[in-house]
Amino acid sequence: MATPLFHAKLTVQTQSHDYPIIITENSNVSSLESDAEDVVSNSAEKSSMASQIAPYIAGRQVLIVTNETVAPLYLKTLQEELEAQFTVKVCVLPDGEQYKNQTSINQIYDALMAEHFNRDVTLIALGGGVVGDMTGFAAASFMRGVNFIQIPTTLLSQVDSSVGGKTGINHAQGKNMIGAFWQPQMVLADMSTLKTLPARELSAGLAEVIKYALIMDADFLTWLEQHLPAMIAFDLAVLGEAVKRCCQYKADIVAQDERESGVRALLNFGHTFGHVIETHEGYGNWLHGEAVAAGMVQAAELSQKMGWLTSDDVARIKRVLVLANLPITPPAIDVQTALGLMGHDKKVKHGQIRLILLKSLGNAVLTNDFDAELLIEVLSQHH
Ligand SMILES: NC(=O)c1ccc[n+]([C@@H]2O[C@H](COP(=O)([O-])OP(=O)(O)OC[C@H]3O[C@@H](n4cnc5c(N)ncnc54)[C@H](O)[C@@H]3O)[C@@H](O)[C@H]2O)c1
Ligand SMILES: [Zn+2]
């Protein structure tokens, strides 16, 4: 029997179906043998990505969707092993948030049509959140909905975007404006893929990890304070433990509120402020996770002004973010500009800005019941 270094299986319950998240550290990715001895000695018997997803592929047709960066790293082994059992085609998209658009979706449809694939096809998203969101949306819409599987290869996509069924693309006027809820058949988070992830992308993913602690679980915050040094050193077992915890939080939230009519909105903690930074600075200059990190500091500062957090709490949040190599100071943005950008956020309801704030560490609320003057103070603070 294979004895992977890390292995966990969780279940996500949704209205359409329940599906597993398998978190593992055992794929025999060809060019990427681990340097830990126990892994090397087990490498011959490690189960591959293909063998782990195959039981969740219903038909004979498979389209792997990936991008130009991830394909050279992880596509070959997966494709070859699946070919033993399935008709496998590949669609390699350009890399980048700027390609998360209708043109890329059309490329996926074109690949499906060229092969005369039908409703039995399973799409496989091999990549980060951009590939996952687009593959999911193509799966939701092709022939009114076909199966898909997520193989997230960034920390952010492993802890957040691959779970919960939000799929979609950007419109020139706004991020994620076109999309659908469409749940995958399974999620395979293989921690080994993180070995090639740039450190800056790992940190960006850690912002979402820290977010779960701040909104859901103060004990997890303490755990992170102890383990973040190992995590930024790419300790895959520790990262795997964190991914497991985060996926469990997300699975619980999605089971309660799949369509974001309530508790799921709390996952946007730091995002309304972060959205201002991302939009103002231009996508790509600040990574999403970096903007969320600085945004969480602003949300914490407003929570402090509300009398909910102490200055010690806010200092602790900043320290944790710094431990993860994340920024804690937003760029200087004119207050009126910031308020204008906040008004375009999807969380705005009936013209009121609603924010997720912290009542205490590990306890978040969605509220429009805050003093606008205090919000302006927070937005003016850093310049
Ligand atoms: N659906 C949701 O619920 C949800 C939630 C959060 C974010 N998102 C979306 O996710 C996207 C961000 O995802 P992301 O942070 O994964 O970004 P990403 O998909 O752009 O990946 C970041 C970079 O890392 C590269 N990469 C991916 N895996 C790699 C690996 N193993 N080794 C080396 N390089 C690798 C990618 O090619 C890319 O250049 C955004 O579009 C955002 O809107 C969706
Ligand atoms: Zn996010």
CATH topology of the largest domain: Rossmann fold
**Taking strands numbered 1, 2, ... along the chain, how are they ordered across the largest sheet?**
1-2-9-6-5-3-4
Q: What is the total number of structural domains?
A: 2
Report strand %: 15-25%
**In sequence order, what are the helices and strands, one letter per element?**
EEHHEHEHEHEHEEEHHHHHHHEEH
Q: Summarize the amount of helix as a percent range.
A: 40-55%
Any low-confidence stretches, pLDDT <50, length ≥5? 30-45
Record field, number of beta strands: 11
Mean pLDDT: 92
Radius of gyration, taken over Cα atoms and rounded to an integer in Å: 21 Å
Give descriptors for this structure.
alpha/beta; Rossmann fold; Dehydroquinate synthase-like, alpha domain; 2 domains; seven-stranded mixed beta sheet; two-stranded antiparallel sheet; 45% helix; 18% strand; binds nicotinamide-adenine-dinucleotide; binds zinc ion
